[in-house]
Amino acid sequence: MVGAGLGGLAAAARLSTAGHRVTVLEQSDRVGGKLGWFERDGHGFDTGPSLVTLPAVYRALFTATGAPLEDRVELVRLDPAVHYRFADGTPLVMPGALDRVPGAMDDALGDGAGAQWSALLGRAAAMWRVSEGPFLRTPLQGAATLARLARNPADVTTVAPWQTLRGLGGAYLRHPHLRTLLDRYATYSGSDPRRAPAVLATVPYVEQAFGSWYVRGGLHRLGEAVADRAAERGAVLRLGCTVRQVLIEGGRAAGVELAGGERVPADVVVSGADATALYADLVPGDRRTRRARRDLARARPSLSGFVLLLALCGRTPGLGHHTVLFPEDYDAEFDAVFGRGGPPRPVADPTVYVSAPDDAALRPDADSESWFVLVNAPRHDPAGGMDWDAPGLAGRYADRVLDVLARRGLDVRDRVRWRVVRTPADLERETGSVGGSIYGTSSNGARAAFLRPANASPVPGLFLVGGSAHPGGGLPLVALSAEIVAGLVGPA
């Protein structure tokens, strides 16, 4: 197993339970991959995902590998789920239960807003029923995958693969704030709503129908719990081990070679590394991967993120667990991130996302807060004109983000004890994700999902798991990728 990200750990737990002897090789000194954690002076921060959606996926993982999830972590359903504030100052407090969402929208945005959103989610629910089984829980098989979706013409009409998320919003949502809200869900796959497929409307449906959940003590504990489960089932976790190449013998994967020269033989290699890095660096030159490399080159990389970890003194009245502050011109943000109208560039007036759990485990005392602040950002690509390591850039942009927060009503500049800045370049260095792309490739374009690398590689015995492979990034999907890979490998 290459990499101890959450997808790799989940695959290790399943494969160990199935009787395989599993060794997990992780380059860093901790498990979890992008499900990171930072702690200093009693302040703690999740540095990756900040909520769990579709928790049934993890409950199924733990049940299948020995004992319930709740034996290891405490899941807390968030209610309210998110505090939104639009550019004109309009607030929307999103309830944590689907049946209360329409009323909250009517209260915030006027009569009829809730009915518009409910109609959209009705369509999204139908999309979810059509696509969940044949796509999200099944290996990607090119034309065969399309054929499964196309057996019923009504299903094709429901999913509308020709329509964008922005187009779907225009068909259902008259209120501009609702369209802005829907656009945000494209970023859950690192994408642009003007190009992302309409089926991404399933993301808000899943979030609101099945809830937004927090792990008490921080989401990093979920990664630790999955690692512990894999170890209990017999997996060996080796940290500080950088894989230099996948060994190919007799035309199939036969193990890996580490940076120090050690060879680790294996009948099967499962890679949780970024797919672009895998095919470019770990199995370079194999003619069988030519098509996979070509598809990755044709796909648009996902956006990245610019992060501030803020250790604050004092408390913020009425602060939600999650707060999203929208800009005046959302399209300008996507133009900057994806390089429309010029090279990719930092967003001048970004959407700002704040995660500030009211969790005593994340702060040193009752009169303090620990904020994870994220803005969408272009990936680190010096050759393409976006160099996040340019002298002074990170500090200047951090100041700008704090100024934007202040203009939108959350001025914490005089409360900062200290801050840590993390750029897309830092994410690339820490996780191996090329350019710091959070989700590998984006979902920009109707064919984007089918350009995402399949779980079974063209090299026999080599499998892909995690956010850069099918079915995609995000906590639920990486666990589903592990389930798919375990099924492809089969029992020992």
TrEMBL record:
SUPFAM superfamilies the record matches: FAD/NAD(P)-binding domain
Record bears the keyword Oxidoreductase: yes
Keywords: Carotenoid biosynthesis, Oxidoreductase
Coiled-coil annotated spans: none
Domain Amine oxidase intervals: 6-308
InterPro entries xrefs: Amino_oxidase, Carotenoid/retinoid_OxRdtase, FAD/NAD-bd_sf
Pathway membership, UniProt: Carotenoid biosynthesis
Recorded superkingdom: Bacteria
Family per similarity comment: Belongs to the carotenoid/retinoid oxidoreductase family.
PANTHER family: PHYTOENE DESATURASE
NCBIfam families to which the protein is assigned, alphabetical: crtI_fam
Protein name according to UniProt: Phytoene desaturase family protein
Originating species: Blastococcus jejuensis
Gene: crtI_2
